[in-house]
Amino acid sequence: MELEVQCPKCNWEPDGEAYWSCHACSLEWDVFSTGGRCPRCGLEHQYTECIGWAGGCDELSPHLDWYNGLDASLQEINIERTN
Ligand SMILES: [Zn+2]
Ligand SMILES: [Zn+2]
């Protein structure tokens, strides 16, 4: 997938490292490799944190906001915000 990924707040670009950990099972993985879904327990993470110690801003943003140029119709298929 050739989507560009960067923080919507500070434009930090993840480099494919396992910066994130699952809220449910604590697995550490690259959240963008699976579109926010934990590869172990399947939990969907709708918000993704920007990694401050890796150069980011520590802010939380909706996962889909991280994808640059994501087609609008694709977003409608992938996400249903109920809150
Ligand atoms: Zn998990
Ligand atoms: Zn950021």
Layout of helices and strands, plus pairs?
Layout: E1 4-5, E2 20-21, E3 28-29, E4 47-49, E5 60-62, E6 67-68, H1 72-78
Antiparallel strand pairs: 1-6, 2-3, 4-5
What would you say this structure looks like, in words?
The protein contains one helix and six strands, in the order E-E-E-E-E-E-H. The longest helix has 7 residues, at 72-78. The model has no long low-confidence stretch (mean pLDDT 88). 8% of the residues lie in helices and 17% in strands. By secondary structure, it is mainly beta. The strands form three sheets. A two-stranded antiparallel sheet has the order 1-6. Strands 2-3 form a two-stranded antiparallel sheet. A two-stranded antiparallel ribbon has the order 4-5. A hairpin with a 6-residue loop joins strand 2 (20-21) and strand 3 (28-29). The chain has one domain (4-78). One zinc ion binds at residues 7, 9-10, 12, 50, 56-57, 59.
H/I helix tally: 1
How many distinct domains? 1
Distance between the first and last residues' Cα: 29 Å
Strand order of the largest sheet: 1-6
Q: Which small-molecule species are bound to the chains here?
A: zinc ion
Count of extended strands: 6
List keywords for this structure.
83 residues, mainly beta, two-stranded antiparallel ribbon, two-stranded antiparallel sheet, 1 helix, binds zinc ion
Give a quick summary of the entry.
The chain is mainly β and about 80 residues long. The chain has one helix at about 70-80, and strands spanning about 5, 20, 30, 45-50, 60, 65-70. The protein has one domain (about 5-80).
